[in-house]
Please model this.
Amino acid sequence: MEIIAFQQEFRPELPNVYGTYDYRTFRDILIKIDELLTRSDLEHHLILGSLNRAVEKDQTLGNGKNLNYRYKVLRHALRCNIGRHLTGESYRLFSLRLADSSLFQWFTDIHALGARKAISKSALERYEKYFDQESVADQIRIWLSEFSNEKKANQAGLMSVVNFSETFMDSTCVKANIHYPVDWVLLRDASRSLLKAIKMIRAQGLKHRMIDPSSLAKEMNKLCIQMTHTRRKKEGKKARKAILRAMKKMSDCISRHAKRYRQLLLEEWEKTDWTEAQMQQVIRRIDTILVQLPEAIKQAHERIIGSRFIQSSEKILSLYDQDVEVIIRGKPGSEVEFGQRLLLTEQSDGLIIDWELLGKNAPSDSDLLQPTVKRIKSYYDDVSAVSTDRAFSSAINDEFLKLNCLQNATCPRSPKELKKRLKDPIFLSLQTRRSQTEARIGIFKNVFLGNPLRSRITLNKRHAINWCVLVHNLWVLSRKAIADEQSKLKKAA
Model:
């Protein structure tokens, strides 16, 4: 791609706001993040990667004028993504904050002289998809690895290099954005989704003969309330079976209406105000539920009427999130969690240097250690120690780490072996530091990722996790840089 002549706009100086320590601290972090993005060329490389993919799809973007405009849009999109994940707000709330906050207008470059343009929640959602998730993940790792070089670190505004010799690995559960997976509640979820789709189609003027959808929804809600109240009643089991049969009949009635409206929409969608893409989206919503509804009905029948056990791997846990698993954590506050496993690796300063969201039926932690270490070594040359909890320990992994000349600080499963290895000061030091990884995971999940994560599709979850890792690392580096500068000033004084 040719060189892009991009002229940054003048940005007014930020107003001084006194008396609020938290605001001034947050402002300093945002200013330092702005400095890191520009001085380390991370921003440029992320935008350039997205531009290259856009030009491959559309050759008309290849001329200088279009490239310059596209570069400006992508720069704005990148900074909006960073700002939103830094605050942890939804698209709607961040859209409001962006329109009202001079600090974020300065950071995202919409605070240009003479004009301010507010960004809608829909635009913010599209911005997140402008960048390929694999390319973003690769670029973050390359960007971090450069900070082991003193010249690159100083150029980015850091006063010391980043040490990647010690790595600390652990897995956690990214909770799914679902309610507790009760079998009969799935029938209510299916009914609500189908009836909402029917209402949307009817609002466009396409109608079949049927009862008012709101009355069907009300009837299903009544059955759900009755099911809830039978739990402690005499003859409650018998009553639950009778109510489930009524719910099955109601679900069947609603699904037949949904099929008729689906066919009507396919045949006459030109009469509506929708585009073809909008029509296809409504069709997908209906199909997603209709495909799973028979299995959901069967599952509820087996559990409530048949009183038969169903394996967790064979159950539908959510109609909307296909990769949800039952994860047994064995912790006091959450014996069982519903979601997907996330593998995180940090270094001694708390930077997340590697991450992977696992799909359904993922391998055990011990099987994940070797491919993860190989991936880390491909980006960070100076890795010399790996520290994990006992879930990653195995004889094969011990041999693998020995062959690769890596300090083995995985906690052994055997208490006898653990007692023996605790006499090693290096092992003891690494395991003591590894205890902080739990806190790092808590910060990442609760402050940056959101608990639960709003996305339900695995691809979108990976997008969100990549952005959160980037923002988290920018946050850690900016705080480190500010602390080093303050320490230098104190010494000079």
Observations:
- Strands lie at 166-175, 325-328, 336-347, 352-357, 385-388, 407-410.
- The two ends are 49 Å apart (CA to CA).
